[in-house]
Amino acid sequence: MGRKIMISVGALVALAFVAGAFYWLRARGSQQPLPDAVSPEPSEFHEALVASPPPIARNEKTAPATKNDKNKKTAPSAAELPLKTGEVLNYTANVSKLDNVATLTLKVAGKGNFLGKSVWHLQAAAHTLKPLRIVFELDDQFDSYSDSGTLASLQYEMRLNERGQKVELVQRMTSSGREPAPPDATAARVLPGTRDPLGFMQFLRTTDWSSTREVRSPVYDGHKLYDVRAKLVSAAAAVGVPAGDFRASKIEIHVFENGAESKDGSFTLYLANDAVRTPVLLEAIMPVLSARVELVKDLPQTPEPKPKAD
Fold it and tell me: Which of 105, 138, 136 is nearest to 122 (CA)?
């Protein structure tokens, strides 16, 4: 995949990089998904202890909202975000006429304290499957440490293993350039409030699309800083994926670089209209192919060959 294509895809959402890999393959698969790599968490990250919420009495009632409360608009607190430690979402990638060519897993790995701030530890991992894996072996893992309230990125990590070539990048975000990065990381100068692809995906989930029609955010994909805009085009689109049938918010995602919109592809994300706004489908239309990344209940596996008759 050309460098420009890979970067543009990564700037959208974690799901989209799968489509970019296949664009690379067309332009110039594992019998079962491999286990995700286990990478050590940064020494600065301290996982929070999960406490049970206090019980609510049966006769307890919520205090009525005052007039001032109704008129007050505040950003959702960390407790209100539809994220839950331990959440695991599995996806299969279909490219053009090829089904189940790769798997993708999104995880909310934990919540804790990082550099004095409350953060979510977010993860994504992707693996190609046979027969494509024979030609393009890909085993990538991404880790994000994002502010628990705004999902702005504090640290973004990429561990890439593509066709036998391994790359590991750990990038500490800084908006001033004055905060030194630790010895095992590099400093990435970004705008205040910049999100990485994993944090941006979760940011779209935390957006209240019933009252919002468009959001924008600076997104740093590990190589470049982009202006990414997401627009609601339908509040109740019908979506069918292996995990089931859903009514979903249909959101178009547009990537801008230096004020000009990228022509490398168009992307549409579908968030289920459930309590946690589950990402159920990503559609990517690239110059030479199209891709669908669909939510599944279990990761697809390559069928075992049938035994030969005696």
Answer: 105
Q: Is 7 part of a structural domain of the chain? A: yes
Residue 237 belongs to a domain: yes
Total domains present in the chain: 1
Q: Is residue 258 situated within a structural domain?
A: yes
Which DSSP string do the residues of the chain spell out, in sequence order?
A: --HHHHHHHHTT-GGGHHHHHHHHHHH----SPPPPP--PPPTTEEEPPP-PPPP--TT--PPPPPHHHHH---PPPGGGSS--TT-EEEEEEEETTEEEEEEEEEEEEEEEEETTEEEEEEEEEEEE-TTHHHH--BEEEEEEEEETTT--EEEEEEEEEETTEEEEEEEEEESSS-SPPPTTSEEEE--TT-B-HHHHHHHHHHS-TTT-SEEEEEEE-SS-EEEEEEEEEEEEEEEEETTEEEEEEEEEEEEEETTEE--S-EEEEEEESSTT--EEEEEEE-SS-EEEEEEESS---PPPPPPPP-
- pTM listed for this prediction: 0.75
- Cα distances (angstroms) measured from residue 47 to each of 106, 109, 113: 19, 10, 6
Mean pLDDT of the chain: 77
- In a domain, residue 91? The reply is yes
Q: What is the domain extent for residue 26?
A: 3-34+83-296
* Angstrom distance (rounded) from CA 219 to CA 256: 10
Q: Helix 3-10 and helix 17-27: axis angle, to 10°?
A: 160
**Domain of 18: which CATH number?**
2.40.360
Does pLDDT of 151 surpass 60? Answer: yes
User: Side chain identity at 283, as an amino acid letter?
Assistant: E
- Cβ neighbours for 285, distance < 8 A, ≥ 6 positions apart: 265, 266, 267
- Taking Cα atoms as reference points, which of 282, 308, 305, 288 lies closest to residue 102? 282
pLDDT greater at residue 146 or residue 22 = 146
